[in-house]
Each structure stands twice: as structure tokens, then as C-alpha cells.
Amino acid sequence: MLTLLVSIALLVISITAALHALLTKRDSKSALAWVSFCLIIPLFGPLIYLIFGINRITTKAQKLFLTQSQEDNSETIREPEGTSFRPLSLVGESLTNLGLRSCNELEILENGEALYPQMLECINSAKHRVYLCTYLFQNDHTGDQFVKALLAAQLRGVDVRVIVDGLGEFAYPPRIGKKLRKNKINFQLFNPIRFVPPSLHLNMRNHRKIMLVDGETAFTGGQNIGDRHLITKIENTIPTVDLHFRLSGKIVDDFERAFLKDWHQCSGVAEKSVFEVSNNNDPGSDIWTRLILDGPNENLDKLNELLTGVLSSAHSRIWIMTPYFLPGADLLGALLGAKLRGVDVRILLPERTNIHLAHWAAQHNLRHILAKGLRVYSQPAPFIHTKAIIIDDTYSLIGSANLDARSLRLNFELGLEIFSTDVNRQLSEYFERRLNTAIEINDRQLRKRPGWMRLRDACAWLFSPYL
């Protein structure tokens, strides 16, 4: 009798999980996979679906991100005088219903050697507030320098706030959180990893990188905080090449508002005062920008839709640098459409990445991409973590997002649209320097790999929606 009751209970659980997947999944292939998994493997299948498959990310995020932080009602400029950014600028405008923000200065900083001294200098000279959000904040020599600078700023009365992603902190011991708490630095974990009660929303990660100082300066890009970005450091066993950007001007207000929303989500405490802007939109600016927030909340699919739109609007070139390249059918279709229109499409990837499963899945996917006639290049070590998209002569997109499902569907990310001929030129020159050391990938190279390797890559590719 007990065996019968257990069997009935398992059947009910499996059917319930399968029905949930059938009714809530937006992609038919994903729905079919989860339904089959739940029905074929009783108990274990529904349990895995509970942890990884249920899109509680959307409902939880939408609930927590209802913040009292006031929006900036100051007018954006949709078509700055003397510019010709459309139709590219129209895509982000349609998505956000916002025009462009001026950027007074933008400096490109390569690797930790260029970035960290400037960040630390800004922290050391801060008078009012320092806000820092990062995915990885490693407890090493570089991390220790930042802790000391943040502590000194806090002791002299600066409003210091630090957000570190819970999984990013958990996955790289020794954990920086203990040191931050020991020094009583105002610190929050984004979606912390817990065993009791268990964290059942592991996919909800904050991958954004932001540092703000006194409402005047913003840093953003792909670099985390840690020795791995110090390329010239001899002891660095995993050197990681990357770009970061230092900004000033009206766009800084948008970054600050984004940080405060994330802070509210982590702390659960709304700001005591209404958000006040620190900068004015300068109609004579040479650089125009727009911040695009993306995440499994009200901003779901914003970056994916932006990318589809701007790729489809390109006239002369699309140059892409990304460490992880597992595009969905819509992005691949936009790239193929651009190539068929005669657009120069080039995709620059690292020869090896630091996440094996993602690299293996991308290797399998490359065969389909090359079959479409798209040109893909492989950069030798060290690992290139740079994320930048260059379109035509005036448009660039930088930020924290990779071109894969995890970044574009599961993580909280940000993208910064940059409308500037000069910035576009600087990024193009960086791209060309990297291209000079790269090797173009062809199908013959992929076919020459051993059969077991190709099978491994194909198996990894099955999990690409979560890599």
C-alpha cells in the first residue's frame, strides 16, 4: 500500500512539474525538454526543474525591483543638433522611450594596470559618496587595496555602498564579504547563496559592473576587481584582458539611479530622500549615450531586442568582440541578414575561455555559424574578456553582457550605447590590433578534432540556455 501511495505521489509531482513547464515556458524546445525530463525521471526531474527551470526570476525580480527611487524627469535629447545617428538611435529610443544623455568625457582603460589606479584615486578623493557594484570582488592584493580605500573613505564620512553578487562571492574563496563586514563597510550581497534555507533561484545573478563617485564620475565595462586583470603581474596564472570605461556627464545620473535600484533590492530599504540629479544634459556634447538595463524583471529581453534592432540597421560593418558567443536564432538571423546585405561582419572570440562548458558549447555552435558564411576569428591567450560591438562609424555598444542566453535572459546586465565617431574609431583600432594576432576559424579545423571532443561539445551545447 505504501509503495502505491509513493508511486502516486511521484506521478502527481512529475505531472504537476511537467504541466507548469508546458504552461509557462516561452520556447517550445525548452518546454519539450523540461516536460520530458520531469516525466521520465520522477522526483529528480521535478527537483532539478524546481531549482533551475522555474522562472521565478521574473516574479521575484519584478516584486523586489518596485522601488521608490524617483525617475529622472529631465528631458533627454532624441536628435541632438548636427548629428545623424538615426536609424540606429531610434532602436534604443523605442525600447526605453528615452532619448540620449550627454557624456562630457569618455576614457577607455585597458586591463587593471590602467583601470585600478584611477578607481582608487577617485575613491581616495571622494567627498560625498562612493557606490560600487561588481560580480567578482576577489580577496587578493587588488581586492585588499580597494577594501582599504573604501574603509578610509567611509571613516572620513563618505557614503560608501558595495554590492557583490552572491554567487560571484561564493565561487571564489576566500570570500571578500568577511573582510568587508569585519571592517564594517556598508556591504550587500545580491541574491546570496544559502544552504539553510536553500537558495532555489541560483540563476538570478547581478553581472553589472558600476562604480560611481560623488555623482560626477562613473566606471563601467567588463572588468571585475581582482589580480586576474593585472596582465603584467608575474604571479597571475589566469591573466584576463579586458576594457573598462570612465565617464562623466549626464549619463552618470542614469548609472547612479540604476545602482540605487539594485541597492534597494539587496537591502530592502528605500531611500530616505528623493533622488536628485547631479548633471545637466549638454546640447553641445560630442558624445551621446543611453543606458540600457537588462534583467529578468521589467527589463526582460531589452538587450536582446536592442541587439536585434541595431544589427538589422547596420549599413557598412558589424564588428563584435565577446568572450562567450552562443547567440539565439534571432541574433544569428540578424547577423546573417546583415552579411547578405553586404555588411562586413566579423566576430572575434578568445581561443580559450575560463568556463569550459560554455567554450565547448560555443565550439559546437560555431559549425552552424560558419556554415552561414559568417567570419569568426580566434584570439590566442591570454584570455580576452572584452565585450564591445562596433557598428558603422558612429555606434558602439559596451557593458557587462556576453552574447549568450545567460547574459541576455537570466542575468541582470547593462549595456551602454555610445554615439560618437571618435569612440567608435578608438574601439575599431583596438579591434584591429586584436585581429592582427587572431586566426580565422574554418569548418575544416572544427572537423579535424577527435570524435570524442565533438561529442563532448555537442553535449555541452544542450545546456547552452544556462551557460
Using brief descriptors, characterize the structure shown:
17 helices, ten-stranded mixed β-sheet, 467 residues, Endonuclease, Chain A, 19 strands, globular, alpha/beta, seven-stranded mixed β-sheet
Can you describe what's shown?
The protein is of the alpha/beta class. The protein folds into three domains: 53 residues; 211 residues, Endonuclease, Chain A, CATH 3.30.870.10; 165 residues, Endonuclease, Chain A (2-Layer Sandwich). It has 17 helices and 19 strands. The strands form three sheets. Strands 1, 6, 11, 12, 13, 14, 16, 17, 18 and 19 form a ten-stranded mixed β-sheet that branches. Strands 2-10-8-7-3-4-5 form a seven-stranded mixed β-sheet, with helices on both faces. Strands 9-15 form a two-stranded parallel sheet. Helix 13 links the parallel strand 13 and strand 14. 45% of the residues are buried.
